[in-house]
Amino acid sequence: MSKGNVQGIRKDYGIDELSKDSVLDNPVDQFELWFKDAMKTEGSEVNACTLSTLDENQFPEGRIVLLKFFAEDGFTFYTNYESKKAQQLEKHPLASMTFYWRTRERQVRVKGRVEKVPAEISDAYYSERPEGSRLGAWASPQSQEIPDRQFLRDRVEEVKKKFEGKELYRPEFWGGYILIPSEVEFWQGRPSRLHDRIVFTLEGDKWVTKRLAP
Ligand SMILES: Cc1cc2nc3c(=O)[nH]c(=O)nc-3n(C[C@H](O)[C@H](O)[C@H](O)COP(=O)(O)O)c2cc1C
């Protein structure tokens, strides 16, 4: 009966601590501090986060996306505007992003409203991507059923032919979304499950902090 029994897997945390006094005044500054810290130890996908949305039956749905930009006004990721997540965001433009930085024993949750970024911002980012990724964006009908892998290979060849000798511009169905934060929670693992949780909530135009029980 040991199959699937993973209850023995556990870890005690304790490399750092967090308090209302130690966090910076603005959650995006605090995020930047932790992000840069995580970059030193976390490896290549420190910008990976779980994006959670709601489907048409109000079921939550999560998937990993890569954060590509963050600033005071929000957190940007890129995707297919006809994908399942995009359709969900169209109907219900609220989402959360959850980051887990194992090496720092930290989690950050960002919650807020989601908007498409201006087309010129998506254009600029698209043009920076490697050619393979740019072709892939054109070729993949993200989230739709496809018959087999060959379908994708054929699509890539079609796209290559279509753009031969021409500029490979951004498809209109691919671009960025910005999550505009209204709540950001910082979690620092501590010994004996007595973790530190500091949540920033936007009240009017002011960020207010609270400590939450772990
Ligand atoms: C490490 C990692 C990074 C990913 N980054 C992205 C991304 O930035 N954008 C994206 O659309 N999908 C990304 N994906 C794929 C998504 O998790 C997901 O499969 C895809 O977006 C389709 O989701 P949907 O059908 O809910 O729209 C990534 C997956 C992994 C594992």
Order of helices and strands: HEEEHEEHHHEEE
Strand content range: 35-45%
Shape: globular
The computed structural class is alpha+beta
CATH-defined architecture of the domain at 27-129 and 172-212: Roll
Overall pLDDT level: 97
Let me know the number of strands. Answer: 8
Low-confidence stretches: none
Taking all Cα atoms into account, the compactness measure Rg is 20 Å
Name of the CATH superfamily of the domain at 27-129 and 172-212: Electron Transport, Fmn-binding Protein, Chain A
CATH topology of the domain at 27-129 and 172-212: Pnp Oxidase, Chain A
Bound molecules: flavin mononucleotide
What is the rounded distance between the termini? 32 Å
How do the strands line up in the largest sheet? 1-2-3-6-5-4
Subunit structure: Homodimer.
EC number: 1.4.3.5
Function: Catalyzes the oxidation of either pyridoxine 5'-phosphate (PNP) or pyridoxamine 5'-phosphate (PMP) into pyridoxal 5'-phosphate (PLP).
Pfam families: PNP_phzG_C, PNPOx_N
How would you describe what is shown here?
This protein is of the alpha+beta class and 214 residues long. The chain has a domain at 27-129 and 172-212: Pnp Oxidase, Chain A. The protein has five helices and eight strands; from the N terminus they run H-E-E-E-H-E-E-H-H-H-E-E-E. The protein has helices at 27-41, 84-91, 119-128, 131-139, 149-162; strands at 48-54, 60-71, 74-80, 94-101, 106-116, 174-188, 196-203, 206-212. Strands 1-2-3-6-5-4 form a six-stranded antiparallel β-barrel. A hairpin with a 4-residue loop joins strand 4 and strand 5. Helix 4 crosses helix 5. The longest helix is centred in the first third of the chain and has 15 residues, at 27-41. The two termini are 32 Å apart. The mean pLDDT is 97. Bound molecules: flavin mononucleotide.
